[in-house]
Amino acid sequence: MQAEAQAPAIRVLLVEDDEDDYRLTRELLAELPGYRVQLDWAPSYEAGLSALARRGHDLCLLDYRLGECSGLDLLRRAAAEDYGIPFILLTGYGAFGLDLEAMRAGAADYLLKDRIDAAALERAIRYTLERKRDREALANFNQLLERRVQERTTELEQTNAALQAETQRSRHAEEGLKESQERLRLAVATAQMGYHYRDFETGMAIYSDQIGQLCGLPPGSSFATYEQFLNAVHPDDRERVAETLARATREDTDYVHEYRIIQPNRTVRWLADRGRVYRDEHGQPLYGIGLAWDITARREAEMEREALYAEEHRLRERAEAADRAKDDFLALVSHELRTPLNAIVLWLNILETTPEPDAATLARATAFLKRSVDQQRRLIDDLLDTARIASGKLQLEVRALDPAAVAEAALEVVRSAAEARGVEIHTLIDANAGPITGDAGRLQQVLWNLLSNAIKFTPRGGGVHLHIERVDSHVRIVVGDTGSGIDPELLPFVFERFRQLDASGKRRHGGLGLGLALVHYLVQLHGGSVRAESPGQGRGTTFTVDLPVRAARLPVPPVPPAPVGEGRKVDDEVAASGAKTSSLAGVRLLVVDDQEDAREALATVLARHGAEVSAVGSGSEALALLAEGLESAPPHVL
């Protein structure tokens, strides 16, 4: 209670047209440590002007939005009327440049409402009041200097009349200087400022002990010469400081500047310095006097605020880029899914409008429908693999594998595509390179993606090569082509998801751009590495995969920030293209699927293979069917 009674009392005017914000600010001011705050509320622009005109406040907290007027309008009006109190502008949103506009209009500080707490408000008020006290101290000091100049002029006139020799004039000047120094010391000690004096006739320089303390010198010591002081200034600021002081001696103007000091312990502090050069009746400089004070806390706060603004801008740009990427990806998925659907719809329309299609038409329709369905299935498999990677649910079925066998399985899938495009595949496979440990389907998927990409980007008449060999403790798989190549600037990004660029940097091929990204992740999952190399555009590309020989299954690596994946399990492709016919005669099957078309299609396929099929659309129907008629002959497979 005693500490609270001793805390300095300040009277604060709050110009705020929102009562809720007024209450919130009042609560924060009540929690303000180190002050006893008397708060006056002006709920409008006009009420604020009336309260300011009474000139009874130490500080004004000013809302940016004040009905038809703004806080900036009131700031400009206050600057014109010179009410003599500092303003802190409060705003509900941070517009770029608003802080600078507020400072130019006369605000001492600028706070965002959604970031205000008791500590931030206390810090802003403290800094504002300190700057107000500094300005008042400077004004008082300037008045003191003016009086001293007048006194000094009178003294010099009296002394010149009485003295006959230059030695006596110098002695009296030195005595007057000591007196002036003592007065300056007493004047600035309370304001925690340091002063400096420089005689341009004799070259003598005096720096107060406070200057020495601000610059990190031992107590009771300071600089002996102007050159010593200048050497303590930060090298990046030294030339500017020297030029400011030199210009003040040439021109009849006061100077004020801010600069950094490097203390003996290498700590950097910011100082503000304000001074004046006094001249004789002929305009020649006699001496200069200045004040310096520490502004490190203010500059650090300004830099922190600038860093926060920069971070906010960076995060906003990142969010906007992510939003654009999402829209681009959705448009791409929509396009890639719609393309095979269009082919399906067109051929179904042809079949529906052709009363008795001939065998050739049926064969063409079947081939087109199969290709379109396969294309959709591949795209959906790509998206599912990407989702599994993003959720960390992509699992491997690990066993010992022969890399040559894995390569042959992948080659079988892509060989027909290579022949259709007129691309020749060359292989050089060491049958004794393995064995390795891994998931056969996923490794086939890796090779299928690499080979498919090589074929896709190689023109007719070009070649693709596949080499497998043993290199130390790894099996090295190399897939190269003589195709369009990759720009060296794009090489670092080839394994990012949704990248599908040719040498020109433009998307010219189908797909979601997930293939190489999924290759990268699957190889990592097997404990291996993959890299891409290209001499440049039109000079082909080479991908090199290194897999450990008989390596134990490694822990699943962390999912990268942008989940990767493209391609599909080649096992599915092989099964779709070359499934063997088998008989299900005598096997009782119960199909449960809530999609009628899928249910009927599956039941039809199973029945064609001789199975006894029952099909229902829900779990409850299945249970009812089992209870009613299948108890004596339950299904073998559900």
Task: Characterise this structure.
The structure is a single chain. Mean pLDDT is 79; it is low at 502-506 and 551-581. The strands form six sheets. Strands 2-1-3-6-7 form a five-stranded parallel beta sheet, sandwiched between helices. Strands 9-8-12-11-10 form a five-stranded antiparallel beta sheet, sandwiched between helices. Strands 14-16-17-19-18 form a five-stranded mixed beta sheet. It has helices at 2-6, 19-30, 45-53, 71-81, 98-105, 118-162, 166-189, 209-214, 226-232, 235-250, 296-353, 359-391, 403-421, 440-456, 515-525, 570-578, 596-608, 619-628; strands at 9-15, 36-42, 59-63, 65-66, 69-70, 87-91, 109-112, 194-199, 205-207, 255-262, 268-279, 285-294, 399-401, 424-429, 436-438, 463-471, 474-481, 529-533, 542-548, 588-592, 612-616. Helix 6 (118-162) runs antiparallel to helix 7. The protein is elongated and about 135 Å long. It starts with a helix and ends in a 10-residue tail after the last helix. It is built from 18 helices and 21 strands. With 638 residues, it is an alpha/beta fold. The protein is 49% helix and 19% strand. It folds into five domains: 2-116, 3-Layer(aba) Sandwich (Rossmann fold); 131-294, PAS domain (Beta-Lactamase, 2-Layer Sandwich), CATH 3.30.450.20; 301-382, Orthogonal Bundle (Helix Hairpins); 396-578, 2-Layer Sandwich (Heat Shock Protein 90); 588-628, no CATH class.
